[in-house]
Protein: ABC transporter permease
Amino acid sequence: MTKALKKYFPIFAGPTLLAFLIAFIVPFFTGLYLSFTKFTTLTNGRWVGTENYAKAFAERSGFVHALGFTAVVSVISIITVNLGAFVLAYLLTRKLRGTNFFRSVFFMPNLIGGIVLGYTWQVMLNAILQHWDQTIVNDWHLGMAGLILLVNWQLMGYMMIIYIAGLQNVPPELIEAAQIDGASRWGTLRNVTIPMVMPSITICLFLTLANTFKMYDQNLALTNGAPLKQTQMAALNIVEAMYKQVGKQGVAQAEAVIFFVIVAVIALIQLRATRSKEVDA
Structure:
């Protein structure tokens, strides 16, 4: 078997590795190099050292504010999405009628594209806010609330499916043993169910973190950073710097590298923290 795997490994894994090299590794290191240059095309970069990184953190770039706004939206969304998804999953794993129907309904928003979701929620929220002579782009608080609502509506059903899979894998004998020992429903949930579902929690926290921090199309369609770029998230800030601001391609690339490092570090910390709490069945 080992000889066969070694023999056919290049045939089966080769195309995937080649595609990964072309689509990710080469562009990543090319972008890393360009972040230290001033360029307009890939071939005319002029080395400027860390100048782009200094400009990225300058107040005029708006990147630091975008990072802060992204962090606030992400933290609130991660908490609300996962709490809501876990509660839905817990309810839908009880022996209730129509659970399969509700699982499908709650999952459906995840199938809709971000641009469509953004414009749809913009219309719905503006229809409500017009009764108070407001729109979602009049106040950054309204824009932030709209983004959080949108993210919850889109991701909660997807995370719910993962939590349902985790809850269904909890050994029934552990629940029965806890009940025999006199544990309350809350005690069983806290001391038995949640520790056994930690692998699902790890996955859901990682997915919500990645999706909220990198959110672009929903932000573009819902508020486009209005008012005065106060609701502009990091990904939207980087794209605008790259394509709409003359001579800032290098700065935008530096912002992209900084953003990548921040998201990667936070994700690694989160994965390590939650995996340490996982228990074996």
